[in-house]
Specification:
The protein has 408 residues and is mainly alpha-helical. It is built from 19 helices and no strands. The longest helix has 34 residues, at 122-155.
């Protein structure tokens, strides 16, 4: 039987009366059902007899190269180096903050008898009593606050804020400020949340009001204040009123005097996530707890140290003067940078100062402190942070004085 060669481009064209009909049917067959040229090429190759002659082999090589290139391009990673890429080598294990914290606690527990024998003095006992009292009282509220804050971050979409806020800025400011009473969050998380709201179209005045109110008047903070000042509900009401008034007034000030060039609104805000909301919740809670817990420890250490090391005459001289006591505790709140879930316990431990001075400490702390100024500088610009923080400090102190005179 003689061999027949077939051209590489397919079967020979038809001849005779049916040639015109065949040529008319070719475009229909190529494009019917949205078929692409690669599928048509594969169909032609399947219906073409393959020859073993040298000519057919050359033609088959041409077809094979074309089809192979198409297949390789259509399925990336299967033929060319997808599975052959070596995995990144795992680095050496390094202990994290949680592991170091646990190891430190174990060391203190094991060596507590040795430490107590060498530090058994009256001043050290007083210092440790004040420190443990502040930390133990504030820790449950700190944990609850970080759990709720992480849950909101992981499960509540940011678009909820844009739907509930009025379009009028003057009306949106008090609504956003009041939203802080039901949406707890620490002051460290309020800055990126406010930046995300602005990037999604929320008016800057409303976002700034929420930034100030959320860490100051949420239920966790109010409950912690009630526990820190037992039998004194007026301190809770005073803190709520002074903090909300400061947040709303700052929002209205921005509506009236704020300029767009003062504020660097984030162009794009993306919520980093692992794909699992529960994983985001776990990592967010762990990060917030360790971060806020560190500030709680620093605040408790500072408060205990002030109670032990500062001479009583100096404290009496400052606390006896009503105005100096208010300004002193307001500046102390800026430097101390205590978490809002724990600052009420620190304020309650500062005996000798007037209730208004303690109120100023609790109002200024969640709105203006060193860590918030740094976060605002990195997010909104240094010029904005300098103007906004300084004005907020003045407004918070004046509001505390007015509310303290009214309620305390």
């Amino acid at each position: 039987m003689s061999e027949q060669t077939v051209p590489a481009h397919g079967p020979p064209p038809p001849h005779g009366p049916d040639a015109a009909d065949a040529e008319a049917a070719r475009p229909e067959a190529m494009t019917a059902g949205g078929a692409d040229p690669q599928a048509a090429t594969a169909d032609v190759s399947a219906r073409t007899p393959v020859s073993v002659s040298a000519t057919a082999a050359g033609a088959g090589e041409g077809v094979g190269v074309g089809v192979g290139a198409g297949a390789g391009a259509g399925v990336p990673g299967q033929v060319r180096g997808g599975s052959g890429a070596p995995a990144a080598p795992a680095g050496p294990w390094r202990p994290g903050q949680l592991e170091l914290f646990v190891v430190g606690l174990l060391v203190l527990l094991v060596g507590q008898s040795w430490i107590v024998d060498r530090l058994d003095t009256r001043a050290i006992q007083t210092w440790s009593t004040v420190f443990v009292a502040i930390a133990v009282q504030a820790l449950p509220f700190l944990v609850l606050g970080t759990v709720i804050s992480a849950a909101i971050t992981a499960f509540v979409p940011a678009s909820v804020f844009t739907k509930v806020l009025p379009r009028n800025q003057a009306l949106a400011v008090p609504v956003a400020g009041a939203a802080g009473a039901v949406l707890p969050g620490c002051e460290c998380a309020s800055v990126p949340v406010a930046g995300g709201l602005m990037a999604r179209g929320v008016a800057p005045a409303a976002a700034l009001a929420f930034l100030l109110s959320a860490p100051a008047i949420n239920p966790i903070v109010m409950t912690a204040t009630a526990v820190a000042f037992p039998g004194r509900p007026e301190m809770v009401f005073a803190r709520f009123a002074a903090s909300l008034a400061t947040a709303v007034f700052m929002g209205w000030l921005w509506v009236r005097f704020g300029k767009a060039e003062w504020l660097r609104i984030p162009k794009r805000f993306t919520e980093a996530g692992s794909g699992s909301r529960w994983e985001d919740f776990r990592t967010g809670m762990q990060h917030d707890f360790l971060h806020a817990g560190g500030f709680l420890v620093v605040g408790a250490i500072t408060a205990a140290t002030l109670n032990v090391t500062v001479p009583k005459d100096v404290i009496d001289a400052v606390s006896d003067n009503w105005w100096i006591g208010v300004i002193a505790l307001a500046f102390l709140a800026v430097i101390l940078a205590v978490c809002s879930e724990a600052d009420a316990f620190v304020a309650a431990s500062l005996t000798g100062f007037s209730p208004t001075a303690k109120l100023a400490f609790m109002v200024v702390g969640p709105m203006v402190d060193v860590k918030l100024i740094a976060l605002q500088s990195g997010t909104f610009g240094k010029g904005f942070a300098a103007r906004f923080s300084s004005v907020t400090f003045v407004v918070a102190v004046l509001t505390s004085i007015v509310v303290g005179w009214w309620l305390l």
